[in-house]
Amino acid sequence: MQQATTLPAIRNPSSPGQDSPWHDVMPLADLADAAPRRMQVSGRSFLVVRQGEQVRAFAATCPHKGAPLEQGTLCAGKLVCPWHKAVFDLNDGSLIEPLALDPLPRYPTRLVDGRIQIQPVALPLAAPVPTGADQGVVIVGAGAAGVTAAVSLREFGFAGRITLIGDETAPPYDRTALTKTVLAEKEEGNRAPPLRPAGFYETHGIDRVVARVTAFDPASRTVELSDGRKLTGDHVVLAPGAAPRMLDVPGHDLPDVFTLRSQADAQAILATRNITDRHVVVCGGSFIGMEAAASLSQAGAKVTVVSATAVPFEKALGHEIGLRLRRLHQEKGVTYIGGHRVTAIAERGGKRQVTLDNGRILLADMVVVGLGVRPATGFVPALATAPDGGIDVDGAMQAAPHVYAVGDIARFVHQGRRMRIEHWRTAQIHGRVAARAIMKQPGRFEEIPWFWTLQFGRKLEYVGYQEPFDRVTIDGDLDAFNFMATQWNGARRVGVITAGRPRETGELVLRRTL
């Protein structure tokens, strides 16, 4: 990565009264087209991008988690974050798609005698025309989809009332961090990062209500809360997310047996006792279960995973990739018992006695259940009529007149069949689509789903709709976690898994097709 020497500041003679100086950074001829470069100006980092004879400068890191954007993908006037696939418009830095919820700051640039100069004062985005001041939106759920819907409504100019209902007292947080970093004790206070900074909801007029939703009537758009209150909206966005599947065996409700869905769950696991050298049995080889196993192992626990599948993730990622991830866990000290289930949990001398279906008994200090999730739609039986508990929606995420279902619960149409996707980024995109529909702006759910898993510092990314596949071809080094794997159903490409290939994955996200 090349950095320019900061030359003496050049005052801007064309902007009377503006004190901010211009800084010379590099010759235009040294900047290749569509090849972002990170530059240093007055001790700050900027991303400089050339498209033909046009040069723009942006903040060098993604506003979501600080990813280095010079490693991102640039195509057709868009920039994709290399870490979590936020998409920004290179015209003005505006946000196109999450995971970021903020635009990318843009800075003035100019050309003087063939050299690029930057003025390090961010340019404001054009403010939308306020609309809908006499309307109200009620959002059920304060996770990825619900918060994104609320934030997007304000971004798009909605000036009416927004009520965001969640059943956790903590401000909305990044749930993906629970298994990836919180259980590894890598987050301050063992708390997941908040989705929005302190004071955001008050500043933007978003009323947070902490309560459990007990019922919803789609016809009247009335939400009933556990405290007896009833709220009605001109528009209602259903974003309750999912609930963890319980371990239905004797002893599932004993102390030190945990499910993992909320921040409180993660804190309870870590607060129970010192994790170091404690034996933890993880029930389930799901992404939640295996990420939890990796994080707890990194925190010093002795971890055993009990899974019904001999090879983890075989159905989602394929046999060879599943084998490599199982071996990764084993290399790090995790014991993987595949092809078996837990049939009972009992107390024995202060320990948990975990009995498997083959009669084997494991002694553990705690048990963590990671068996997947199901849509949390019990409060709305009129709409949740599908066998899996999901709610059917159209391309604008509408489930009934002025009622939208987004995130884990939404059953949209792909390739002629209904499906749900339990991905964080997909949930956020759903929230933005619903917000656009409320604002009567064009836009339908057309993004290709993407998710990532992080286990022992190894990141895998998946692009696709989780369709059935009959073979997987792998290009690259599976052992070194530097590869691109393609899932095929006959002659049709239905999924791509990558490791160490952020630009290739970004291109797939931008193309919206495999």
TrEMBL record:
Keyword DNA-binding included in the entry's annotation: no
Listed InterPro entries: FAD-oxidoreductase/Apoptosis (IPR050446), FAD/NAD-bd_sf (IPR036188), FAD/NAD-binding_dom (IPR023753), FAD/NAD-linked_Rdtase_dimer_sf (IPR016156), Reductase_C (IPR028202), Rieske_2Fe-2S (IPR017941), Rieske_2Fe-2S_sf (IPR036922)
Key word Metal-binding present: yes
UniProt region (Disordered), positions on chain: 1-24
Gene Ontology MF terms in the entry: 2 iron, 2 sulfur cluster binding; metal ion binding; oxidoreductase activity, acting on NAD(P)H
Rieske domain segment(s): 23-118
Biased segments, Polar residues type: 1-18
Any GO CC annotation of this UniProt entry: cytoplasm
Keywords, in A-Z order: 2Fe-2S, FAD, Flavoprotein, Iron, Iron-sulfur, Metal-binding, Oxidoreductase
Pfam families: Pyr_redox_2, Reductase_C, Rieske
Enzyme Commission number(s) from the entry: 1.18.1.-
Major enzyme class: oxidoreductase
Cofactor: FAD
Name of the featured protein: Rhodocoxin reductase
Gene source species: Komagataeibacter europaeus (Gluconacetobacter europaeus)
